[in-house]
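Researcher: Quick test of sequence recovery. Tokens follow.
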């Protein structure tokens, strides 16, 4: 089966679309591709310089939106992989750390960690310990 393709442009509606695409790719166990398409050509007849600047800005914005979408998808895939493994080994407990960036900021925000713990507890039934 081929990959799931999700067109994204940012914003609240895109988050719901991404969630649906992530869930579908996880369920089918296939690759997920995010696609961002923007056409700055509508300003070209008016101002070539503005069109070039707009194209650069849209490319930068698109790359940022795709990074955010990929990060969101990785969180889901990692969680799903962990759930599957815990079920496979019939685990009774999971201990996980909360990594920090080189600047000291938490990579796995505390609210996300607690949400992840609650989901694991309810879906797999394991006791989860977080080491900060």
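Model:
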């Amino acid at each position: 089966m081929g990959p799931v393709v999700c067109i994204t442009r940012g914003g609240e509606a895109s988050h719901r679309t991404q969630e649906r695409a992530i869930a579908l790719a996880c369920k089918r166990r296939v690759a997920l591709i995010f696609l961002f398409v923007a056409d700055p050509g509508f300003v070209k007849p008016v101002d070539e310089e503005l069109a070039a600047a707009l194209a650069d800005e849209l490319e930068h914005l698109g790359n940022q939106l795709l990074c955010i979408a990929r990060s969101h998808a990785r969180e889901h895939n990692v969680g799903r992989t962990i759930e599957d493994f815990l079920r496979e080994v019939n685990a009774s407990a999971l201990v996980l750390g909360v990594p920090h960036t080189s600047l000291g900021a938490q990579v796995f925000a505390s609210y996300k960690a607690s949400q992840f713990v609650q989901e694991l507890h309810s879906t797999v039934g394991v006791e989860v310990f977080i080491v900060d």
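The mean pLDDT is 79.
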